[in-house]
Design the sequence.
Protein backbone atom coordinates (compact mmCIF):
# COMPACT_ATOMS: atom_id res chain seq x y z
CA UNK A 1 0.00 0.00 0.00
CA UNK A 2 1.43 3.36 -0.94
CA UNK A 3 1.02 6.39 1.33
CA UNK A 4 -1.85 8.79 0.71
CA UNK A 5 -1.18 12.07 -1.10
CA UNK A 6 -1.79 15.17 0.97
CA UNK A 7 -4.36 17.52 -0.53
CA UNK A 8 -3.45 21.07 -1.44
CA UNK A 9 -5.17 24.03 0.20
CA UNK A 10 -6.94 24.64 -3.10
CA UNK A 11 -8.26 21.07 -3.28
CA UNK A 12 -9.45 21.26 0.31
CA UNK A 13 -11.17 24.61 -0.28
CA UNK A 14 -12.81 23.21 -3.42
CA UNK A 15 -14.27 20.27 -1.50
CA UNK A 16 -15.55 22.51 1.30
CA UNK A 17 -17.15 24.83 -1.26
CA UNK A 18 -18.75 21.88 -3.05
CA UNK A 19 -20.20 20.59 0.23
CA UNK A 20 -21.63 24.02 1.06
CA UNK A 21 -23.28 24.25 -2.38
CA UNK A 22 -25.40 21.18 -1.66
CA UNK A 23 -27.91 22.21 1.04
CA UNK A 24 -28.84 18.62 1.99
CA UNK A 25 -25.22 17.50 2.23
CA UNK A 26 -24.21 20.60 4.21
CA UNK A 27 -27.14 20.05 6.60
CA UNK A 28 -26.12 16.41 7.04
CA UNK A 29 -22.55 17.47 7.90
CA UNK A 30 -23.90 19.99 10.43
CA UNK A 31 -26.14 17.35 12.01
CA UNK A 32 -23.13 15.05 12.44
CA UNK A 33 -21.16 17.83 14.12
CA UNK A 34 -24.04 18.54 16.50
CA UNK A 35 -24.18 14.82 17.17
CA UNK A 36 -20.53 14.91 18.28
CA UNK A 37 -21.47 17.63 20.77
CA UNK A 38 -24.43 15.55 22.00
CA UNK A 39 -22.31 12.43 22.42
CA UNK A 40 -19.62 14.29 24.35
CA UNK A 41 -22.26 15.84 26.63
CA UNK A 42 -23.82 12.40 27.23
CA UNK A 43 -20.42 10.94 28.05
CA UNK A 44 -19.74 13.71 30.56
CA UNK A 45 -23.17 13.10 32.12
CA UNK A 46 -22.35 9.39 32.47
CA UNK A 47 -18.90 10.21 33.87
CA UNK A 48 -17.24 8.39 30.96
CA UNK A 49 -15.00 9.11 28.01
CA UNK A 50 -16.81 9.03 24.63
CA UNK A 51 -14.71 6.04 23.56
CA UNK A 52 -15.17 4.04 26.79
CA UNK A 53 -16.44 0.53 26.07
CA UNK A 54 -19.17 0.92 28.70
CA UNK A 55 -20.40 4.33 27.46
CA UNK A 56 -23.98 4.06 26.19
CA UNK A 57 -24.86 6.18 23.15
CA UNK A 58 -28.61 6.65 23.05
CA UNK A 59 -29.93 7.29 20.47
CA UNK A 60 -27.34 5.57 18.29
CA UNK A 61 -25.21 7.67 15.93
CA UNK A 62 -26.70 8.87 12.65
CA UNK A 63 -26.00 7.11 9.36
CA UNK A 64 -24.37 7.81 7.06
CA UNK A 65 -21.55 8.87 9.35
CA UNK A 66 -19.42 11.98 8.87
CA UNK A 67 -16.71 9.77 7.35
CA UNK A 68 -19.13 8.16 4.92
CA UNK A 69 -20.44 11.57 3.85
CA UNK A 70 -16.84 12.72 3.36
CA UNK A 71 -16.00 9.71 1.18
CA UNK A 72 -19.09 10.34 -0.97
CA UNK A 73 -18.07 14.00 -1.35
CA UNK A 74 -14.53 13.07 -2.36
CA UNK A 75 -15.79 10.43 -4.79
CA UNK A 76 -18.04 13.03 -6.43
CA UNK A 77 -14.98 15.13 -7.30
CA UNK A 78 -12.24 12.55 -7.79
CA UNK A 79 -14.10 9.37 -8.74
CA UNK A 80 -12.24 6.17 -8.01
CA UNK A 81 -9.02 8.14 -7.38
CA UNK A 82 -10.50 9.61 -4.17
CA UNK A 83 -8.76 6.98 -2.05
CA UNK A 84 -5.26 8.05 -3.02
CA UNK A 85 -5.74 11.30 -1.07
CA UNK A 86 -5.42 11.81 2.67
CA UNK A 87 -8.85 12.77 4.00
CA UNK A 88 -7.77 14.40 7.26
CA UNK A 89 -7.25 17.93 6.01
CA UNK A 90 -10.66 17.96 4.34
CA UNK A 91 -12.36 16.65 7.47
CA UNK A 92 -10.69 19.33 9.59
CA UNK A 93 -11.58 22.09 7.12
CA UNK A 94 -15.20 20.94 6.95
CA UNK A 95 -15.51 20.70 10.72
CA UNK A 96 -13.97 24.16 11.15
CA UNK A 97 -16.45 25.76 8.72
CA UNK A 98 -19.37 23.92 10.29
CA UNK A 99 -18.40 24.82 13.84
CA UNK A 100 -17.99 28.48 12.89
CA UNK A 101 -21.41 28.47 11.24
CA UNK A 102 -23.02 26.79 14.26
CA UNK A 103 -21.29 29.12 16.72
CA UNK A 104 -19.38 26.27 18.37
CA UNK A 105 -15.79 26.55 19.64
CA UNK A 106 -13.17 25.91 16.99
Sequence:
Amino acid sequence: MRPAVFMTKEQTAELVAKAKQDPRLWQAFKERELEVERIHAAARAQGKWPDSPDFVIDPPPLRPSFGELLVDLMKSLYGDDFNKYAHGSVALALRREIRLELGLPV
Summary: Residues 9-102 form one domain. The two ends are 34 Å apart (CA to CA).
